[in-house]
């Protein structure tokens, strides 16, 4: 520190230093900063004195200048004394005596400036003695010690004998007098002072008495508080606290109980800040540590109670446990010592001192203080008071009076809340300290909840400023916290108070469900662990719930329900959690539980919804069973429970629906099960594959018919529940998102979700997803208003292109929109122009359709490649997808059925004697009303269907453009329309079949019905294999309906002629472009149609057996489902039925242990199949096997997709041609040339034989072949079975199995089979075996021929019965051909001459066929099947030529001569008859048939005597030209069969069975070579005889 006195001042003291010093002191004294000035003056005086001590300045000079300075400050003497004190200490330590002397002289000189007393205080006794201020320092020390002892250590003994009782009596009289007058505390205080003085009273004792009196007169706060305050000015501050502490101490012995009056006095004094809480708190017991220990002990005890409740105690242990518990309880009954801290806290709360009360609560564990009821009640009372004005303003319900709460008398209590903001600042804090113990005051609970409700009303009304909004947001979050921490826990501790639960729901329902569920989650999972009391309550609730659930049955639903209700009012989360866990284990509890939940409050229902969602979302639970192929039963039970509970009770659905949507977004489709159940139960829309045909039929009617006849359960009263579901979906905008998510998730199931999952489970999930979509879409369609629907569902192109919805689903969602739209437009038009004529109405309907559908036609163009629209028009596509069964047909029988049921019901009501009359009346009225509704609905639908059919009639000409081929058109139609839709739903399956029939009936141009049906029945393997379980069921329904139509046409010629005979769909010439109306059409006749139907049945059998053979789970399951569905119409033919039966029987045996579900399916089907057996018929009854019939339908039809679109005369076999090489064609040509020569000779040898003769001859040959086919087919089967198990073994036999087989042949079957088994190595041995085999068959045949001759006469008769139409037609054909010449597509070259075509024509045909084939788009499976057919046929032919030589030549000749003569006569007679017929027929045909039939050759074969060839048309050999000799055919066929085999092998490779087939094909080739050799050497004579003898068949 720098020196304030420079050395120059001291040197020149007299000249200027003195003045400088004085000025410095004056300046320092005037300094405004008091502290700085004080320190600087101290330093200045010290430096001056120090200079004196050192001898630099004389003491008198210093004393003089100090005399001048002393006046500058009042405290200057004191400052100087301090300086002397410091110098005293310093100098006493110095050894230089002169310095000490200088100091003493200076002090003596300044004695007049500083008083003795100040110096005596500050200087050392020795210094004082040397200064002469005291006589002896020793005496002085002793005296000071005595005084200090007396002051600080000696207790003043009040001599009570000296104190007089009178004084205290007077004091008590003063304090106890009536204070109501104008007596003030100041007046009394003066009296008290006088009494103390007069009677020598102890002041502390007086204060104690004042407090005692105040305790007894608590109402005089205004008097006593100021009195004590004034009195305390005379005492030390701590005195009051000590006296109070002493009072509390007095009551701290174990038996003592602190009076509440003392607490109150202490509280009031604290509130008026007369004592400090910290000072008083230390005097109170128990200590904080003891309180914490007690709190911990309570938690441990609570947990032990829980453990005891959950533990299973055995009876022997029970007694010991009880004894221990008794002992513990006895210990507990000893009263715990008084908790003075809690007593004081209660008093503070009662007088409204929240500030101090809060401080005490903060010292204790949370909720410890309020867990004591008196404190909780006191705090509740304080809250009552605080919220009063706000509650009166906004909280009181209308019409309620309520009892007002008076405010607290003292002004220091918390301010009462006038607004929500004030409520937040004060009251919410109090409530947080109260926690779950608000349960002690249900009225306050209700008030708080009502205030919450009022706040939410304000919060949700708009129009406030931004600042206010922020405040409101804060308030809202505080309200949620209060709900979480106070209201819900308090509800748990209330004793089943249903009113509180409902009151709370009043506030809760204003929260969005997200907040509510969050609160429930906290309540369920967090709250119960935070308080010992709640821990106990949770355990007791579970214990009680177990008790109830153990006893719950269907019989005691009501009493159990009441118990559940009681329990649920307070602790719903715990109860429902337990109930749901039981439901997940035992699904038979669902019904009784649902019924027993009728006593719940609205809040409880909402909590239940949350608990269900939480249970569903439980991450620890597996959604699949351990075998990974089925959905877990807990999930199924919960879903079922969901549906039932949401239907029966008014529970909010939004959360559940959002959960399902979120799961779908996450790519999980398991939980769709829930949505499915909810929609089924709430809306009454069932989705089941087990529908009967009656139900399905009812589902095609109006809403009323659906409800009455379409579902298994009678669905009643779904109006309210479906309305609730609809509202939930619309309010939360979930309707469309759910649809789109489901539609997208269908493929997600397969491609994303289904990666590691079992195929069976993937199928199940796919079905579940699809079914739920169909069901949900159905619900929306029937429940949403037109506006709602149109507003929500975007246009079809947006759905498909932007939302990536599959087309079938997109149309499914849009379809109701189109229907709504059209009907509303139609209504508009009707209103606009009132014309009642039917045609006016139809015209308006068509106009409205055009208006609505035109944009759709535009929109659909973007869905497919432009090439698609070459074949089918967008209009056709949109029409197909937008119509439903409701639009196509009226289910009259269903309406009649339901009306009859109602009539029966009404009759039963009349007959019922017990029913009271008023109920009878009601029931009858209901039935009558329903009946009227149904009839009205039927009428309405009938009108609608008529309008739709009119519309279709107008549209149909623009439907199919067929710019490429009819075949391509059918492909597109099946691919884009029929197949996707027929597996969409059961009704859609029926719709598809009906639509095909409708398109046929409308005579739609370019639509080949024949091709369409053929493609459907020929190709089922791949379709079946790619279906899920439910899709297979729907596909089966579709096939069933298709078969129904076909069977109807097949059953009766009249029906066929009426519905198909003259229709363009049954043309057998398929042109590449539209047909020319001027040309005569070639229709398929009835008998040929029957052959085709047989072929279809055969193909179905082949496909079925193939699927059953694969061993693949999906193939077997699906084909069994399909077969079960088509059982009414298939199998009809006995031998096909038997083949199926054998195969299914095998499945039953194989799968019994391995795959029980397949076993069950197979057993079910097997049983049904057996029951159908009596209705099956042999093949010859199903279609005539006699010649004319066998003119077989078109190879085209046969060939189905493979060859459609090319002339039948080319006998299409696409695959074969595509793969056959040119070399093969050349070989064929050579052969045909050879055959031509033979034919010429034959013709010359029998110049008089007419066409009919040739006809019969060749036919007889065919019949023989047919028998052989059977035989060889059998052998082939066996052979194949051994070689290639995957290729349908029985299939080969199927076609010919039961066709008039002689018994001998069957007997030899097994032997042959054995031989064939050994044929695999291709060696000489093999050839020898073949020869042996042939010999055996020859012997057999010789026997047969004899029988044939015998049966000749019957055959003749039959033949005569046959109408002579064939010949007429033959003539017609010839004339047609001559007229048309080369223009005709199907026939290459003219057919005038009876001689077969030349080589050139043959090769031309070959080329032509190739060209056409390249255009067609064969579906592979069909060609495979066709090739298999050919395989059979050709194999049969190997035996043909070897049979005849067994008859001796002479005999043969005789027989044949006779035959020839007879046949000639017969044919002449016939010709005459036919002449007439032909002329008549010509006229008819020229009118009716305008198109050049695709298959003209077919009939030509009939009439020109070539039906022989037709018998083999199924083999589809390229050289099947009309009048080729049988022999030529055989060669070609044998050749072609080789090719066929090659093709069939290709197909079979796909089914993993190529090896066996290859061997077969080689084997066949060898056979054909041998046969050709034999043919050439056999001699033509024999050939002739053979023919004529065969003819007798």
Helix and strand topology:
Layout: H1 7-11, H2 13-30, H3 34-54, H4 59-69, H5 76-93, H6 97-109, H7 116-122, H8 125-131, H9 137-153, H10 165-176, H11 185-199, H12 203-216, H13 221-231, H14 238-250, H15 260-271, H16 277-281, H17 288-310, H18 315-333, H19 340-351, H20 354-363, H21 373-395, H22 420-434, H23 442-460, H24 466-493, H25 498-508, H26 513-525, H27 532-551, H28 557-570, H29 572-585, H30 590-596, H31 602-616, H32 633-648, H33 654-665, H34 672-683, H35 693-699, H36 703-709, H37 719-731, H38 735-753, H39 759-783, H40 786-792, H41 796-801, H42 807-832, H43 838-860, H44 874-882, H45 885-888, H46 892-911, H47 917-955, H48 966-982, H49 986-1001, H50 1009-1018, H51 1020-1025, H52 1029-1051, H53 1053-1061, H54 1086-1110, H55 1113-1125, H56 1134-1154, H57 1156-1172, H58 1179-1182, H59 1195-1199, H60 1214-1219, H61 1222-1245, H62 1251-1283, H63 1289-1294, H64 1303-1317, H65 1324-1350, H66 1352-1361, H67 1365-1380, H68 1399-1415, H69 1420-1437, H70 1440-1443, H71 1449-1488, H72 1496-1503, H73 1507-1511, H74 1526-1550, H75 1554-1577, H76 1580-1591
In words, what does this structure look like?
The chain is elongated, with a radius of gyration of 57 Å. Mean pLDDT is 76; it is low at 1072-1080, 1187-1330, 1339-1449, 1485-1562, 1570-1574 and 1576-1593. By secondary structure, the protein is mostly helical. Helix 8 crosses helix 9, helix 17 runs parallel beside helix 27 and helix 22 packs parallel to helix 24.
């Amino acid at each position: 520190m720098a020196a304030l006195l420079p050395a120059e001042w001291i040197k020149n003291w007299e000249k200027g230093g003195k003045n400088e010093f004085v000025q410095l002191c004056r300046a320092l004294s005037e300094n405004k900063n008091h502290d700085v000035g004080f320190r600087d003056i101290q330093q200045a005086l010290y430096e001056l004195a120090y200079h004196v001590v050192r001898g630099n300045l004389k003491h008198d000079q210093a004393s003089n200048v100090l005399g001048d300075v002393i006046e500058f400050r009042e405290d200057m003497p004191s400052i100087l004394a301090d300086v002397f004190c410091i110098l005293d200490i310093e100098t006493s330590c110095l050894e230089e005596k002169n310095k000490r002397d200088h100091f003493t002289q200076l002090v003596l000189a300044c004695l007049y400036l500083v008083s003795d007393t100040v110096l005596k205080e500050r200087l050392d006794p020795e210094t004082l003695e040397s200064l002469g201020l005291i006589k002896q320092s020793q005496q002085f020390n002793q005296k000071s010690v005595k005084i200090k002892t007396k002051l600080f250590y000696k207790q003043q003994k009040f001599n009570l004998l000296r104190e007089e009782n009178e004084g205290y009596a007077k004091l008590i009289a003063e304090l106890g007098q009536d204070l109501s007058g104008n007596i003030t505390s100041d007046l009394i205080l003066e009296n008290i002072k006088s009494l103390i003085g007069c009677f020598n009273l102890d002041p502390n004792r007086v204060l104690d008495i004042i407090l005692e009196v105040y305790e007894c007169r608590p109402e005089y706060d205004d008097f006593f508080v100021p009195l004590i305050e004034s009195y305390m000015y005379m005492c030390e501050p701590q005195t009051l606290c000590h006296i109070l502490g002493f009072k509390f101490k007095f009551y701290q012995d174990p038996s003592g109980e602190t009076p509440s009056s003392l607490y109150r006095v202490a509280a009031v004094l604290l509130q008026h800040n007369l004592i400090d809480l910290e000072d008083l708190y230390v005097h109170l017991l128990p200590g904080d540590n003891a309180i914490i220990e007690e709190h911990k002990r309570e938690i441990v005890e609570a947990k032990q109670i829980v453990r005891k409740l959950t533990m299973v105690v055995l009876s022997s242990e029970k007694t010991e446990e009880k004894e221990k518990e008794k002992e513990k309880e006895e210990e507990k009954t000893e009263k715990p010592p008084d908790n003075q801290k809690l007593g004081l806290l209660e008093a503070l709360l009662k007088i409204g001192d929240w500030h101090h009360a809060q401080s005490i609560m903060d010292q204790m564990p949370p909720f410890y203080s309020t867990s004591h009821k008196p404190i909780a009640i006191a705090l509740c009372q304080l809250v009552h008071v605080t919220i009063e004005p706000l509650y009166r303003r906004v909280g009181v319900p209308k019409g309620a009076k309520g009892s007002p709460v008076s405010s607290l008398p003292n002004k220091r209590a918390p301010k009462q809340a006038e607004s929500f903001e004030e409520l937040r600042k004060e009251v919410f804090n109090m409530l947080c300290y109260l926690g779950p113990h608000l349960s002690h005051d249900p009225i306050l609970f209700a008030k708080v909840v009502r205030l919450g409700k009022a706040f939410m009303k304000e919060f949700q009304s708009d129009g406030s400023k931004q600042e206010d909004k922020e405040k409101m947001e804060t308030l809202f979050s505080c309200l949620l916290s209060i709900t979480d921490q106070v209201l819900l826990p308090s509800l748990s501790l209330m004793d089943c108070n249903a009113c509180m639960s409902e009151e709370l729901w009043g506030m809760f329902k204003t929260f969005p469900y997200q907040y509510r569920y969050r609160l429930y989650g906290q309540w369920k999972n967090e709250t119960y662990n935070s308080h010992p009391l709640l821990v106990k309550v949770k355990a007791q609730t579970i214990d009680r719930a177990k008790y109830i659930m153990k006893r719950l049955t269907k019989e005691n639903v009501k009493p159990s329900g009441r118990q559940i209700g009681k329990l649920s009012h307070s602790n719903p989360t715990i109860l429902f959690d337990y109930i749901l866990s039981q439901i997940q284990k035992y699904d038979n509890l669902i019904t009784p539980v649902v019924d027993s939940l009728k006593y719940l409050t609205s809040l409880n229902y909402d909590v239940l919804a949350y608990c269900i969602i939480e249970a569903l979302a439980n991450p620890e639970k597996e959604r699949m069973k351990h075998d990974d192929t089925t959905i877990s039963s807990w999930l199924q039970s919960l879903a079922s429970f969901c549906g039932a509970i949401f239907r029966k009770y008014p529970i909010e659905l939004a959360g559940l629906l959002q959960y399902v949507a979120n799961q779908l977004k996450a790519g999980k489709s398991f939980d769709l099960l829930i949505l499915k159940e909810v929609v089924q139960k709430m809306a009454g829309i069932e989705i089941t594959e087990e529908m009967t045909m009656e139900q399905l039929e009812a589902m095609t009617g109006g809403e009323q018919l659906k409800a009455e006849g379409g579902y298994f359960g009678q669905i009643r009263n779904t109006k309210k529940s479906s309305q609730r579901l609809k509202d939930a979906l619309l309010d939360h905008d979930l309707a469309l998102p759910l649809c789109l998510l489901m539609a997208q998730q269908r493929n997600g199931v397969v491609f994303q979700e289904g990666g590691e999952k079992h195929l069976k489970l993937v199928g199940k999930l796919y079905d579940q997803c699809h079914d739920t979509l169909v069901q949900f879409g159905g619900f929306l369609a029937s429940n949403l208003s037109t506006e709602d629907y149109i507003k929500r569902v975007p246009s079809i192109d947006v759905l498909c292109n932007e939302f990536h919805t599959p087309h079938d689903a997109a149309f499914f969602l849009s379809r109701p929109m189109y229907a709504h739209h059209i009907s509303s437009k139609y209504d508009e038009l009707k209103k606009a122009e009132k014309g009642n004529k039917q045609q006016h109405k139809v015209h308006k309907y068509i106009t409205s359709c055009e208006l609505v559908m035109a944009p759709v036609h535009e929109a659909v163009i973007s869905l497919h490649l432009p090439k698609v629209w070459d074949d089918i028009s967008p209009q056709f596509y949109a029409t197909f997808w937008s119509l439903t069964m409701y639009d196509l047909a009226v289910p009259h029988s269903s309406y009649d059925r339901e009306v009859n049921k109602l009539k029966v019901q009404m009759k039963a009501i009349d007959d019922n004697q017990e029913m009271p009359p008023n109920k009878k009346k009601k029931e009858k009225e209901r039935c009558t009303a329903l009946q009227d509704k149904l009839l009205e609905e039927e009428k309405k639908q009938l009108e609608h269907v008529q309008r739709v059919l009119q519309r279709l009639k107008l549209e149909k000409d623009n439907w199919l453009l067929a710019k490429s081929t009819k075949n391509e058109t059918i492909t597109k139609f099946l691919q884009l329309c029929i197949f996707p839709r027929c597996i969409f739903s059961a009704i859609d399956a029926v719709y598809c079949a009906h639509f095909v029939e409708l398109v046929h009936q409308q005579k739609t141009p370019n639509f080949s019905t024949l091709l369409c049906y053929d493609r459907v029945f020929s190709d089922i393997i791949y379709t079946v294999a790619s279906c899920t379980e439910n899709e297979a069921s729907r596909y089966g329904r579709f096939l069933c309906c298709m078969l129904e139509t076909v069977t109807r046409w097949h059953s009766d010629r009249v029906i066929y002629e009426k519905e198909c005979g003259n229709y363009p769909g049954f043309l057998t010439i398929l042109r590449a472009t539209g047909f020319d109306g001027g040309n005569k059409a070639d229709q398929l006749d009835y008998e040929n149609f029957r052959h085709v139907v047989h072929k279809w049945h055969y193909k179905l059998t082949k496909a079925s057996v193939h699927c059953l053979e694969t061993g693949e789970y999906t193939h077997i399951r699906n084909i069994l489902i399909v077969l079960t569905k088509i059982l009414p119409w298939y199998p009809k033919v006995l031998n096909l039925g038997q083949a199926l039966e054998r195969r299914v029987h095998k499945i039953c045996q194989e799968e019994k242990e391995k795959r029980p579900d397949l076993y069950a399916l197979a057993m079910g089907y097997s049983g049904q199949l057996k029951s159908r057996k009596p209705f099956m018929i042999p093949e010859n009854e199903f279609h005539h096997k006699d010649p004319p019939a066998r003119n077989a339908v078109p190879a085209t039809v046969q060939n189905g997709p493979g060859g459609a679109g090319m002339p039948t005369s080319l006998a299409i076999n696409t695959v074969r041609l595509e793969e056959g090489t040119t070399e093969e064609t050349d070989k064929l040509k050579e052969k045909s040339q050879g055959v031509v020569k033979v034919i010429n000779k034959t013709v010359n040898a029998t110049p008089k034989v007419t066409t009919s003769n040739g006809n019969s001859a060749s036919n007889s040959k065919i019949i023989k072949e047919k028998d052989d086919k059977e035989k060889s087919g059998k052998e082939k089967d066996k052979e194949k079975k051994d070689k290639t198990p995957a290729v349908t073994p029985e299939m080969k036999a199927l076609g010919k199995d039961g066709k008039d087989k002689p018994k001998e042949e069957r007997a030899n079957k097994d032997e042959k089979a054995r031989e064939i088994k050994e044929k695999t190595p291709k060696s000489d041995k093999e050839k020898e075996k073949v020869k042996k085999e042939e010999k055996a068959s020859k012997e057999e045949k010789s026997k047969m021929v004899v029988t044939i001759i015998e049966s000749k006469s019957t055959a003749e008769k039959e033949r005569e019965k046959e109408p002579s139409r064939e010949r007429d037609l033959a003539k017609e054909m010839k004339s047609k051909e001559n007229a048309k010449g080369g223009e005709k597509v199907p026939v290459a070259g003219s057919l005038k001459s009876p001689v077969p075509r030349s080589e050139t024509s043959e090769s031309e045909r070959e080329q032509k066929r190739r060209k056409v084939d390249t255009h067609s788009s064969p579906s592979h499976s069909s060609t495979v099947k066709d090739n298999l057919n050919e395989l059979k046929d050709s194999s049969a032919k190997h035996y043909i030529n070897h049979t005849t030589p067994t008859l001796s030549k002479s005999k043969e000749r005789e027989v044949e001569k006779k035959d020839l003569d007879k046949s000639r006569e017969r044919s002449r007679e016939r010709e005459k008859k036919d002449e007439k017929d032909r002329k008549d027929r010509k006229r008819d045909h020229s009118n009716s048939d305008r198109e050049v039939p695709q298959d003209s050759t077919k009939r030509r074969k009939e009439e020109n005597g070539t039906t022989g060839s037709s018998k083999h048309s199924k083999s589809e050999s390229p050289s099947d030209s009309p009048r080729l000799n049988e022999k030529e055919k055989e060669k070609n066929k044998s050749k072609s069969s080789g090719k066929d085999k090659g093709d069939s092998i290709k197909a079979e490779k796909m089914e993993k069975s190529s090896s066996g087939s290859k061997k077969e094909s080689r084997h066949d080739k060898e056979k054909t070579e041998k046969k050709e050799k034999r043919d050439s050497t056999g001699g033509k004579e024999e050939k002739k005889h053979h023919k004529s003898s065969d003819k007798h068949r």
